[in-house]
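Hi all, long-time lurker, first post. I run a small reading group and we've been trying to get comfortable going from sequence to structure in the token notation. Rather than ask abstract questions, I figured I'd post a concrete chain and ask someone more experienced to write out its structure so we can walk through it together at our next meeting. Sequence below, copied exactly:
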Amino acid sequence: MQIPRIHPDTIEEVKSRADIVEVVSDYVVLKKRGKDFVGLCPFHNEKTPSFTVSPGKQIYYCFGCQAGGNAIKFIMELDKRNFGDVVLGLAQRYQVPVKSLAPEQRQELQRQISLRDQLYEVLASAAQFYQHALRQSLGQKAMLYLQEERKLTTETIQQFGLGYAPAGWETLYRYLVENKNYPVQLVDKAGLIKPRKEDKGYYDVFRDRLMIPIRDVQGRVIAFGGRTLTEEQPKYLNSPETELFLKGKTLFALDQAKDGVSKLDQAVVVEGYFDAIALHAAGVNNVVASLGTALSIEQIRLLLRYCDSKQLILNFDADKAGTNATERAIGEIANLAYQGEVQLKILNLPNGKDADEYLQNHTVENYQQLLANAPLWLNWQIEEIIKDRDLKQATDFQIVTKEIVKILQNIGNSDTLNYYISYCAEILSLGDTRLIPLRVENLLTQIAPSHFKTPARPRKQESKKPKFTVATTEKSLLEQAEALLLRIFLHCPEQREMIFAELEDRNLEFSLSHHRLLWQQSLVFPLEDNDLISKLENRYLELAEDLNILSHVFHLDEKNKLEIIRTPQVVQATLACMEKVFREKRHRYFMEQWEKVDSKTEPEKERLYYENAMGEKRRIQELEKQRQFSIIELF
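-- Answer (accepted) --
Happy to help. Here is the structure in token form:
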């Protein structure tokens, strides 16, 4: 449909009323920086924010791709919409009266504007009807539910405009169409009635349900949520999407929460309508609720434009469905959270309760204390990974480690990564502090190599610090050594106790995942078990793990048999090789940290990294001598 030419006065009025920060915040998470706002540019991929929005000048500009302009151009470029369509949309949003250049086109333009106004009007009338019905005898059951089960006061019921949809099939239809004379097509477009499939006529969408108005940011009713008062399914029914209502771009109670979010500089998202209502009734007024669907990035951006710190707390139910909803929400926000654009925390209330249930037996101060202590999302995810897992069992240990590594691999900030490596290493060491350095190294080994190869920032010209490189043969050397040691362990029972003791004394563990799993599974059985190989093969079949990758360990060929003839020397050679690789990684890590640290501002840290690196270097030289002396031809 062609948009009539809009009068210049209207265009100028739209420009003056449309807030560039509000408009851009629908698409970009912005962070206050001085007088301006910054964020990641939506017009090109970038990791460091170079996109600036100036509320004073009402313009945006990207220093990376040079995109720039006002609010109208921003929407045109990003949504690929024409000028007239964007101006019309902003005029509706900011309630600017619209006029066209050609008098004959004014009627069409007004029709487009008035449709939304009419929808607002019919939805407001429906809300009044439901509120009135709640206070009549036919709404007594719904009122008792609100007052006795939900413990809501009359003031809270009025604040949220709660109502009741009578049980009849055409009660609202008759009120709006026959009594109020609204066009039936308009009531249909508002999502309040549906056409019958067989007979002529319409029926009410909501029947015998407690009605909860859903409002836009400006407080206008745009849809409804209806809770059943019987066993009818679904328990909660939302209005269908309409010209005014899009589930993925709407948050319940945002109109009442936006001031609280801005004042407290924190936003809380709960799952249910009544969780949000109960919290507002208790005085926690920075809370919104999702609408029964997965929390979308559009909803997050809408919410966070009222929160400078971008601190967001998800307080979903602690049951399986709630945990899944939290995971889905994290999936939407993860990229922003990893980049530090959102400060994401997760709150699961004790005993699996939702917020409404919790407040029935606890004070609002108790809830606020839980909010203050809510863990960061990475901590929550790690806790979910280890929940119901026995880390003393090899299989659980492997599963947990694998999932933890997946999380760590996504952390781009080196300081954050170092913190969580240490945090996870403590968990995996099960209270044995001697194992923490080993667990740290194991995690570092499994994280993507890019974390070790990131170029150090440029140093001053006078810097004489040496550079270092990663050995290209490291993995093959390590694989040979580990495989050989496992062969000896499996085929030479008399050597098992000594190998186990040496690995413990040196704090060494197998680095390659298939070797590590085999080692963990072998320790399930007694060291002296003469049938160990057969039992391990059966164990692998039970776990549906691939045995082919370990066939050279389980079965000896002529070359393998010759390798283990001089068993004591071979064991020392393999252990020296494994520890050498372990120490080389530690040396690289300390050197990289030393290379990054600023010697002027952190001299003590620079000295510590250098001493650690040199200590590892000396140990590497000792191990190389041991390895060559023991059995030089093996590696």
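A couple of things your group might point at:
The longest strand covers residues 221-228.
Confidence is low (pLDDT under 50) at residues 452-474, 629-635.
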